[in-house]
Amino acid sequence: DNKLPASLRCIVNKIEDGSIKNVVTLVGAGISTAAGIPDFRSPSSGLYDKLQEYNLPFKTAIFDGSYFEQNPKPLFRVLRDCFFKTHPKPTKTHFFVKLLEEKGVLRRHYTQNIDGLDRLAGISHDKLVEAHGTMQSAHCSECQEVYSLPWMMLQLESNPVPKCAKCPGVVRPDIILFGEYLPDDLTKRMKEDVGECDLLIVMGTSLAVHPVSTLVTSMRPQKFRIFINKSNSGNRIPGVDPCCGRRYEFPDKQVWVEASSCDVIMYGDCDDCIDLLTGWLGWSESLIELIQN
Ligand code: OAD
Fold first, then answer.
1. Is 143 annotated as a binding residue?
2. φ, ψ dihedrals at 78, nearest 5°
3. ω into residue 211 within 30 of 0, thus cis?
4. 167 is in an annotated binding site
5. Can you tell me which residues bind Zn(2+) (predicted)?
6. Active-site residue numbers?
């Protein structure tokens, strides 16, 4: 126990005694890398460093709404080759969020990921905000006919751009590209959730994209935040003060922790950090059961 920073021990105690009961989670591509999907911005392994062959006018063009309208092929190719070829499954970190729900403490799960693994982990519809949409469903951009991910994957085996069966329209996944409108109620919901939140857990995101990143900066003072990211301390998390003081090392898992009075930063692989966190909470067995069932 004395190997844990005081703020982390306090968070664990408060979850145990029921005084933390509104946890909000915010995740990004880093929680799906263990499922074989690259993230976007990690140097060399991230998607944005692997797109030279696409001759894009700018790095993020592939996820840009206006660019997609002119040239939809690169997006479909990336979705086919990088997102779904390996039939990804939810990771331990996805199941940890489901476990928070089962333990009755999850208020909301915000995911920026379009892979749909949060749904596949069983996180309930009313707890889940897919802020950038999902690949799990698709629709015709002209007649709005609805299609599924398996249908789209089948199409992409033989066509670079899937076309509607009922009209000449392009069938596009239900994802929100840069420059397109986010869900109407997103910012209202974020405001309500952040107002009620006792603990924010941020995992595997660079926090580079608005508006979900503002969940971090709009937290009230004296509320707890846990950040989990593999980046080292040279790569500071935006909106988070450097946590000075002791560095707590967990060499078995290649994880280290820094903490201030309300913020805990866990540096390491998400799944390794989740192993530690569930251990401290006494939830390791429940997590294994959840994954196995
Ligand atoms: P990024 O690629 O920007 O950030 C992923 C973060 O996860 C980085 O900070 C990595 O250090 C960290 N990371 C990677 N693997 C990890 C692991 N195994 N364990 C712990 N941390 C790990 O991805 P996002 O923050 O999700 O938008 O990007 C946000 C948005 O930008 C995406 O939703 C997408 C993109 O452009 C759209 O497509 C609209």
1. yes
2. -65, -40
3. yes
4. yes
5. 140, 143, 164, 167
6. 132
Cα separation, 129 vs 208, whole angstroms: 18
Distance CA 114, CA 174 (A): 9
What CA–CA distances, in Å, run from 228 to 126, 151, 171, 241?
A: 24, 35, 36, 15
Q: At what angle do helices 284-292 and 92-102 cross, to 10 degrees?
A: 110
Q: Quick: pLDDT tens for 41-79.
A: 998 889 998 888 888 999 899 999 999 999 999 999 999
Residue-wise pLDDT tens digits, 214-259: 999 888 878 999 999 997 544 556 556 666 667 888 988 999 898 8
Tokens describing residue 14:
């408060």
Gyration radius of the chain's alpha carbons: 20
Ligand 1 contact, 269 CB (< 6 A): yes
Token pair of 20 as six digits: 């933390």
Q: Average pLDDT for residues 76-101, to the nearest whole number?
A: 93
For atom 14 of ligand 1, the residue with the nearest CA is 30
Please tell me the distance from the alpha carbon of residue 77 to that of residue 108, in angstroms, as a whole number. Answer: 32
> Is position 262 annotated in a ligand binding site?
no
Interface predicted TM-score (ipTM): 0.98
Ligand 1 centroid vs 46 CA: distance in angstroms? Answer: 8
DSSP 182: P
Q: Is the Cβ atom of 209 under 6 angstroms away from ligand 1?
A: yes
Task: Supply 77's token pair.
Answer: 């190719």
